[in-house]
Amino acid sequence: MILVKNSGYLFFKKKKYKCAIGFAGTKKNKQEGDKATPKGIFKIIKVYYRKDKIGELTTSIEKIPIKKNMGWCDDPLSKEYNKLITIPNNASYERLHRKDNLYDLIGVINYNTKKIIKGKGSAIFFHVAKAKYTPTQGCVAIKKDDLLFLLKNIKKNNKVKII
What we know:
Elements: E1 2-5, E2 9-12, E3 15-20, E4 26-27, E5 37-38, E6 40-42, E7 44-49, H1 51-54, E8 63-65, E9 70-73, E10 84-86, E11 93-95, E12 105-109, E13 125-128, E14 140-142, H2 144-153, E15 160-162
Parallel strand pairs: 1-15, 4-5, 7-8, 13-14
Antiparallel strand pairs: 1-2, 2-3, 3-14, 6-15, 7-12, 9-10, 9-11, 12-13
């Protein structure tokens, strides 16, 4: 079990890691654009990574190298809402191939992914934190080395509890 607390700390295997969460903290009834990290119990269902920056990645979770034309739709009006898309695209999206290192490694949390509800929130990721752990738009962000360790040591059915 990975435990993410509103205090800005993540706990895994009896270790404490600094992390960043959404500007608005954690929230049970998350909505698109509210800058909150959703409360609940989830799984990391896929991992996207920059092979040019990470190299070979060891994880039991399905992993997909990030290509320059990959994006994640955050447009509630699109039929591709909260899904991986090819860009350019007419819908609003998050670019996965970025110049900064924030999306060098992304763990997709299964929040609003099975039966997608438009406007409930999209692109909820575990990703690399900024140097000062500034808050995210709703994701969980940790140091790159910590994220690599986490992904190497969790199993695909491990739970992520955000409180």
